[in-house]
Amino acid sequence: MLVREETPADFDSIREINRLAFDGDAEGQLIDRLRADGDVVLSLVAQIDGEIVGHILFSKLLSETKGGEIKAAALAPMAVAPEFQERGIGTALIERGHALLRERGYTVVVVLGHPDYYPRFGFTSAKGQALSSPYSELGEAYMALELAPGALEGVSGTITYAHAFSELV
């Protein structure tokens, strides 16, 4: 399996993987809007034998905390083609994404996702509580991860997702 940054030639495959994984077009439309708005921080695909089988996207988050801005990204969406799920593709995408974000100076990632899945990567709802957002009220599903140890220690503030998230159908 190869995990690499997306290219424009991948866009149709990415849209299709998200449509199949989420049973609809909302995530593909979100991805298109994030790209059009220039809010994509990192977008990766997983490829097996030349076929794109997975995708993950990280977008800009604006943060306002008492200690100043933190360099944070939102993980959303992540999708693996249904016939390739349960093979470690999502794990590979998340781990590669986190490594690249660290290299680029990001210190925090926020996700709204399954509380049984994301904690294995270090995400916790307790860390998410440090950063209020429109999704904070969703409890255990709203989580954050420190890419830099201590990045959220003593931090409280708000984050604002890219505008495309407010347009979700």
Q: Structural class, judged by helices and strands?
A: alpha+beta
- The SSE string, one letter per element, is EHHEEEHEHEEE
What gross morphology would you assign? Answer: globular
Regions with little confidence, pLDDT below 50 for 5+ residues: none
| Percentage of residues assigned to helices | 25-40%
Overall mean confidence score, pLDDT? 95
β content, as a range? 25-35%
Number of strands: 8
What is the alpha-carbon Rg in Å?
15 Å
How far is it from the N-terminal to the C-terminal residue, by CA? 33 Å
**Main sheet specs:** 8 strands, mixed
Treating each run of at least 4 consecutive H or I residues as one helix, how many helices? 4
Features:
single chain, 4 helices
If you had to describe this structure to a student in words, what would you say it looks like?
Strands 1, 2, 3, 4, 5, 6, 7 and 8 form an eight-stranded mixed sheet that branches. The model has no long low-confidence stretch (mean pLDDT 95). The chain is globular. By secondary structure, it is of the alpha+beta class. The termini are far apart. It has helices spanning 11-22, 26-37, 89-103, 125-128; strands at residues 2-5, 40-48, 51-65, 72-80, 108-112, 131-132, 142-146, 157-161.
